[in-house]
Specification:
Shape of chain B: globular
Helix content of chain B: over 70%
Helix content of chain A: 25-40%
Strand content of chain A: 15-25%
Number of helices of chain A: 8
Largest interface: A-B, 46 and 65 residues
Structural class of chain A: alpha+beta
Radius of gyration of chain B: 18 Å
Number of strands of chain B: 0
Order of helices and strands of chain A: HHHHHHEEEEEEHEEH
Oligomer: heterodimer
Order of helices and strands of chain B: HHHHHHHHH
Distance between the termini of chain B: 19 Å
Strand order of the largest sheet of chain A: 5-4-7-8-1-2-3-6
Largest sheet of chain A: 8 strands, antiparallel
Shape of chain A: elongated
Structural class of chain B: mainly alpha
């Protein structure tokens, strides 16, 4: 029977667990309950919310630098990062440089681009375009880089706010004075490469903008944005060029302009 | 406060990226939170070597269990503090019970509430908790603070404060019930 007194007694036991006054056996018994049922977990979480702020009373003290190195070693961070072992096209730092490149990184970015260009079959014209897609709070959500020759766009998340689990961010191209055209679904976690249709390629340009709306899984059911627009950015042009070096120079010019 | 709510958002974002195996986010999370969490470990364990070991194990758990973090159950700060305290308490329970049991007397328990300088950067939750602790009988609030910061059992607390075990239990239980009521209003 759950009388208020019984409820108090069991709630107190969770409070004592969170406070840390139980001995090893009593702690283990509560932990067993936590593994078995949600009611105990929510009572313990509630007491955690009540009591954990007390930790703010303690003066912070930086741990010695060796500690982070030991953690890295234990987690085997010093080997290659499997999630970062991407092809050059998917190289996230490279695209960050290319789209957000600051003065200091410019030379390195250009060198990387020349490397990229000379290691691929020559194409008569290689225009690149880039956009920084900024969220409403001013944080960069994504960077988009468009390779017109290959009719594709890579969209790299910078620090987008998380999206509800049953929703997906969708990217739109908004031509000046026109209606939004769906580009594709993107991710808050991983770089996504999108194919660009001929219609889209024809409309990419410095007067167009990119925007991100929040849509149900699978994308907007209507073909137009249905959810809130959370981020937008103008497209910066790196126009058609005669060869790799020229493309690098043009990109350099576009990098020097504020995006 | 704006600063603390922005910080909460940042930590939540970093934790969710850590769950996606983002090493850079995990490194940043460590950078932002390890001084506070290390201070907590040193205070609880009173041994820097052990504090380092516990913090190391805690961050390895954070990397492995970040996908179990549920923002609807706890703020990132609460989740991290709870995880680290649980590790420290487990470590304390492995020690022989008599390590810290030199009697101190209740009056000698340190008063750990922040001074006026610290109040400014404290979170709203902390200030509310401090207000409620301030309304308790001082022997109740000192016992709760000592329990929280030392991770000691009822028995150890009773010995340290030189009161009978039943007295210590009743002080802390009353304190917890009064805190619950105070924090709900």
């Amino acid at each position: 029977m759950n009388t208020p007194l019984n409820e108090d007694a069991s709630d107190l036991r969770y409070a004592e667990y969170v406070l840390g006054v139980l001995d090893a056996d009593a702690r283990a018994a509560v932990e067993q309950e936590l593994a078995d049922g949600a009611a105990a977990a929510s009572a313990v979480a509630e007491w955690g919310r009540r009591l954990a702020p007390l930790a703010e009373a303690i003066a912070p003290e930086p741990p010695p630098p060796r500690l982070w190195q030991r953690i890295r070693t234990r987690l085997e961070f010093d080997g290659p990062d499997p999630d970062r072992r991407m092809r050059l096209w998917d190289n996230l730092p490279l695209w960050h440089w290319l789209t957000l490149g600051s003065g200091a990184l410019l030379a390195a970015a250009c060198a990387a681009l020349v490397f990229l260009l000379v290691h691929r079959p020559p194409t008569p014209a290689i225009p690149y375009m880039a956009a920084t897609i900024t969220e409403n709070d001013g944080q960069v959500g994504w960077t988009a880089t468009m390779d017109i020759g290959k009719a594709r766009m890579i969209v790299v998340p910078a620090t987008p706010l998380p999206v509800q689990p049953n929703r997906t961010p969708e990217l739109w191209l908004i031509p000046q004075g026109g209606r939004p055209i769906a580009v594709g679904l993107i991710s808050t976690q991983a770089p996504i490469t999108l194919r660009l249709s001929a219609t889209l390629v024809a409309r990419l340009g410095p007067t167009a903008r990119l925007a991100v709306s929040i849509e149900p899984h699978g994308g907007s059911p209507t073909g137009a944005p249905t959810g809130p627009v959370i981020a937008a950015g103008a497209i910066g042009a790196a126009p058609a060029a005669a060869g790799p070096a020229a493309a690098a120079l043009r990109l350099r010019a576009s990098l020097q302009r504020p995006v | 406060m704006n600063d603390t709510s922005t910080e909460t958002e940042t930590l939540e974002r970093l934790l969710s990226r850590t769950a996606m195996r983002d090493r850079a986010a995990f490194a940043r999370l460590y950078e932002l939170t390890s001084p506070r969490l290390f201070g907590l470990c040193v205070r609880m364990l009173r041994d820097r070597g052990e504090a380092e070991e516990v913090l190391q194990e805690a961050f390895i758990s954070i990397w492995r269990r970040a996908d179990g973090y549920d923002a609807t159950l706890a703020s990132a700060n609460t989740w991290l503090t709870t995880l680290v305290r649980n590790r420290a308490i487990d470590r304390l329970r492995q020690r022989r019970e008599d390590t810290h049991s030199d009697p101190l007397g209740l009056e000698q328990l340190p008063d750990e509430s922040r001074g006026p300088a610290g109040e400014a950067e404290a979170s709203e939750d902390y200030r509310r908790l401090e207000r409620c602790l301030g309304q308790l009988d001082s022997k109740y609030s000192r016992s709760v603070r000592e329990a929280f910061f030392s991770g000691a059992t009822y028995k150890e607390l009773a010995m340290r404060c030189e009161v009978p075990l039943a007295t210590m239990k009743s002080w802390i239980r009353r304190a917890l019930l009064q805190l619950r009521t105070c924090l709900e209003t």
